[in-house]
Amino acid sequence: MQPKEGRKVNRSKIRVFRSLFCLLPLMMLASRVQGETKVDPKTALRMLNAQQQQFEKTVVQVTDNVYTAVGFHGANTSMIVGKDGVIIVDTLRGPSSAARALEAMRKYSDQPVKAIIYTHSHGDHIGGANAMVGETMPDIYATESFGSAEGVNEAVNPVKRKRNIRQFGRKLSPLEMTNRGVAPAGTADNDGGKGFLQPTVKVPKEGLKTTIAGVELEFHVAPGETDDAMFIWLPNKKVLFAGDNFYSSFPNLYAIRGTAYRNVLKWSESVGKMAALEPEFLVPGHTMPILDQDLAVAALTDYSEAIRSVYDQTVRGINAGKSPDLIAHEVRLPDHLKDKPYLIEFYGSVPHAVRAIYSGLLGWFDGNPTTLSPLHPRKEAEKMAQLAGGTQRLTEQMESALAAEEFQWALELSDHLKWLDDADKKLARKVKIEALRGLAGREYNAPNRNYYLSYANELESGALSEIWF
């Protein structure tokens, strides 16, 4: 498809996006056989390297007077040029990255910032605001519920911080790093949050229509990845700023760092509302903008359907009395969606989503009385050793699983052996480390890959206790 006559667009970036449409479905053929998000190591790296193109550092001219800076940190930041000022949508994680992005966008306008808009309250979208203001403080727009992004009790922040580091691979070596699924690896985070400015204009639940610097804007409250999310619509330019309710990956319906339940139905509905606007230009919270109406509408429509499909399949499994683990192994995207490049599980994961939906709707109990009061892990390990014919036989089974590259089974057996007083716990630790790295090498889901590698490194360094390795 050719851009409509008169559009000024970044043609090189359109080619990048189209190349992904051609390339990624071919690479997904291997995953159809093996399932989930594991493929052979070469294919996994090839896929992650291809996804890397989605956040190469650049400023994309979305359309006349609309620019998006990609790759200056994990998220995107955008500038809308008006008659007597500019409007900024999201401000990256900290002042240093925000300043670099603004400098790059300033080649298109040096007018003062009249407004800043936060699409939601995740730190990578709000932490650099003070680097984008001038002598006059702009209005700062956010939803009335702004600040409710995580929804998790502060009491668990210590473990969340550890899991956050693992999910994003923040301490991985350059050789281990690939990317974060919808963001580059190795971002500069030392000043994260230090540029945050409090919102001054709260957008009500029913939304808001206004004009800023001569630009007509619509603010639509749209719960999804966060409860405080909204999307921004420029009706005269047909530009949609989606925030983190859309990016080029299967959505992170659950984050393994630990999050409260993300309302999956509302997320699907919010994306459906975006699709109904039929945008000509779609600017996601992460990854490259889509600069073609047909592609933009198709992506949003498919995204909404995919989320709803996973929800509906999970609910059917629940009502059939199935456990969350069984449902997680059974749910699949519909055939016509599984190879869409914006639905490949680089960031979110269908099995993780299933378990989150189950827990969000029913809590931890799966309905099976066997799981009401399970054995202590040590007692279960002792019983497993007895079944195997003793601790030595269980150890041999663990080593055999590793040698056969049955990495998940090797992990599970190592976790049993760690509880046994007569087991070789150093060997169990070593096997777990090797199995984690074996799993990581086959993962194209970036959070899973980063978590496996990070945990392996912590085990190897002795940073984890004997109980928790």
TrEMBL record:
Residues 1-35 form the signal peptide. GO terms for molecular function: linear primary-alkylsulfatase activity; protein dimerization activity. Residues 74-286 form the Metallo-beta-lactamase domain. Keywords: Hydrolase, Signal. GO terms for biological process: dodecyl sulfate metabolic process. It comes from the Bacteria. This is Hydroxyacylglutathione hydrolase. It comes from Crateriforma conspicua.
